[in-house]
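Our example pasted here:


***
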Amino acid sequence: MTRLFDYAYILATIAFTVYGQLILKWRIGQLGVLPAGTFDKLKFLVGLLFDPAIFSGFAAAFLASLAWMAAMTKFELSHAYPFMSLNFVVVLLLSGWLLSEPISLQKVFGVALIVLGTLVAARG
């Protein structure tokens, strides 16, 4: 049972990473495109830092890092890291569902190749 609990660190890393990516894309999509001028770009990007939703994405990235460090105390990197390919799968599915991004056959095939390659590498 303890070993199963150790995988919770990997799962938390994936969950926080996916949340961070999705919330950043969602919120930035609401705030508009990056301005053309250098000063306007800087002002826009600094302003993003103070947006609560975007800040939560950064917080999620920090929590993902903590969870990953905890996972590294329990697993060899070569065992744990292949699980990170699940990020591609979950982001693809949730971006289609929550952000209405198109999910093409090419994207599905590409993500499937990433997962397959990761599985092959993890077993080798």
Q: What stands out?
A: DSSP finds six helices and no strands in the chain.
